[in-house]
Here is the input.
Amino acid sequence: MKGGAFCPLCNRLLGPEFWNSGQFQACPACSAQVMTIAFPTINVPSGTSSIVACEAGESSCFFHANNRAETICDGCGRFLCGVCSISFGQRRFCPDCIYRSRRQKSDLLLIDQAVLFDNIAIAVLALSVLTLSYLILGLFVSLLTVCMAFVGWKYQRTLVRRSRFRFGFALILGLIGASIWILLLLLLLIPALPRYA
Here is the structure.
């Protein structure tokens, strides 16, 4: 029996043309953008083995001492057999490097989710205006939007390239809102200051 990879949205079985391509492709059923990462032995029928036993004088796999090494991990340099070597385009990684890169979010190919700070900053500002809470919390919301834009500019990491337009838009709106609120507060406080003749 052969293995397979499935679309995470519609659970359709994806063919070998989807496996380890290193880029997103549209699912034939639901058009969702998917990228599958599969072990090389996914297409090997049950009961057969493509692994070659390691003989004296040959390099063995780091994870499987009885298997002959076929390649080297591009992340850590460990020798890998056909079971442990996972391809990403032209690069090959071991399971440890994949796990470490996903936890540290150091390789964009291995990030499967991201916080979109630009969308959050604009949404916070828009929702506060629509719910009229901006009338009470306007200065706080404006400063929060500016902070989200600055933080997101530095820390937002996504697999799909996004323009910085949303960050600029959120920053400008936040600065305008904060300026208006500071000006209103000054206009309200100046008449309340004691006058000295």
